[in-house]
Amino acid sequence: MTESEVLSLDLTGIRRLTVADFAERRMTNQEFFHIAGLVGGYWEYLGEPRFSAPHMLAQSGLHLGNYINCSLILAESTVREILAAQMIRYCPIETNKIDWVVTAALAGITLGGEIARQLRARDGFVEKGDDKELSAWRFQILAGESVLLVNELITTPDGSIYATKQTVEKLNPELVRFLPYAALMVDRCPSKTLADGTQIRSLFKFVFPAYPESGCPYCAAGSSLVRGKANFRRLWQEQQAYQREQQGGNKAQRRLS
């Protein structure tokens, strides 16, 4: 299937896609955003920074005007299967060296499980412990087994995927042999490696503005700051309403002219 054919699909058509539809090519950024938009998985701050429209706080502490809700994208099982196959092929993942696929809870669990299924590997995950950090590990990797780190998204080199690696190294009874790279679905990290030098291999690379509080243009305009996960649905709905309002205004302007 060609890019233009994919971009013409509605949600029903997207759910009928298969891995074979992308067997000979890599999914484009435009196709990914088309899919994300149809499932309600992408939010963008539209218009100029203003008091009336809030912006998002990332888990990293940075302030954002764009947000990809990977959980909603990966909830589509057919899309998840395609994205996992694309990551295996184009990250690329060296399939003859992997015993385990390990990711961080929660959004990455289904992606890691699908990649492990396709690789015929086992899959595990690090989850939040009593300290509310990614500090709990309930699996056991045997000595000599190779481990691939996977996550749905990376923003900073010392974020959740790095914390996952540290926790497994600390709590696994045997010495863990990690592969020298991590596979990410969405990469919005300024670094090419994790904090310890592990190579980042990604399917999609996006450069979205991210601001510290002291340099945030949204804060400077009086925009309130909200957490992305808890407020995503409301912000996405406001985005849709803004788009409809702008489109209605454009239509009225064309009639007047």
Explain the overall architecture.
The radius of gyration is 20 Å and the shape is globular. It is an alpha/beta fold and 257 residues long. The protein has helices spanning 3-7, 11-14, 29-38, 70-74, 77-90, 108-119, 160-171, 217-220, 228-256; strands at 42-44, 55-57, 63-64, 66-68, 100-104, 122-128, 134-137, 146-154, 177-187, 199-205, 210-211, 225-227. It has a domain at 3-38 and 66-207: Rossmann fold, CATH 3.40.50.2020. It has a six-stranded mixed beta sheet. It contains nine helices and twelve strands.
How would you describe this structure in keywords?
37% helix; 12 strands; four-stranded mixed beta sheet; six-stranded mixed beta sheet; Rossmann fold; alpha/beta; 9 helices; 257 residues
The major β-sheet equals: 6 strands, mixed
| N-to-C order of helices and strands | HHHEEEEHHEHEEEHEEEHEH
Give the neighbour order of strands across the main sheet.
Answer: 7-6-5-8-9-10
Strand content: 15-25%
The overall pLDDT, averaged over residues, is 93
CATH topology of one domain: Rossmann fold
